[in-house]
Specification:
Blueprint (H helix, E strand, L loop, with lengths): L2 H21 L53 H9 L35 H9 L21 H12 L3
Helix pairs in contact: 2-4, 3-4
The structure holds heme C.
The site of heme C has 21 residues, from α3.
């Protein structure tokens, strides 16, 4: 899929979110029934903070910044690859080129050679869990506190990034 197509898909998802808003009440943070790899149920989108000043979601506070400590082991690289490439899961590919020859978006730096850079695991883990620990205005999604990825899934993605190919 080329990048232009990804843009179209992203625009479609936003339009969908807008449509959900049109009929949404302002109930805050009901449990999310999203299944990774499947489309986010549109009725749940209203439970996430947004930047649309005239919508109730703009009044939902973002989750608190979470600092995490690395310990334990990397996960399953093959699963991590799947998570990173899945547009309805990690979707790292939207902003990053990834190891294994996966060309992605260029909003973030290329991670294709990430293993070679020997970045510390605790840095990488924190960065994916909650990037705001480094920069409160960072552009990367907040994967841990927003429950997009579990700790194990981040270990899997890290195994994929750290695998030398
Ligand atoms: C919406 C775009 C976007 C998505 C999606 C995204 N990132 Fe990022 N990422 C960035 C940007 C931009 C940076 C550069 C610093 C910053 O602003 O956060 C970055 C930086 C990073 C870094 C640090 C790179 C370095 O050189 O230190 C890592 C590691 C990383 N991202 C991993 C991931 C992983 C893994 C995923 C998927 C689970 C992901 N990113 C999803 C935009 C994104």
């Amino acid at each position: 899929m080329n990048l232009a197509m990804k843009g179209v898909i992203a625009a479609g998802a936003l339009a969908l979110a807008g449509a959900a808003w049109a009929q949404a009440g302002s109930k805050i943070r009901t449990p999310v029934k999203w299944v990774p790899g499947q489309q986010m149920p549109v009725e749940d989108m209203k439970n996430y903070p947004c930047h649309m000043a005239d919508e109730p979601c703009s009044r939902i506070a973002p989750p608190r910044i979470e600092k995490v400590k690395w310990g334990g082991t990397l996960g399953d690289a093959a699963k991590g690859e799947k998570i990173a490439l899945d547009l309805r899961w990690g979707n790292c590919i939207a902003c990053h080129s990834l190891p294994g020859g996966h060309e992605g978006g260029n909003i973030g730096p290329s991670l294709a050679e990430y293993a070679k850079r020997n970045m510390p695991l605790d840095y990488t883990f924190q960065r994916i869990w909650d990037v705001r620990a480094f920069n409160p205005n960072a552009f990367m999604p907040i994967y841990g506190p927003n429950k997009v990825l579990t700790e194990q899934e981040i270990r899997d993605v890290m195994a994929f990034l750290m695998a030398t190919r």
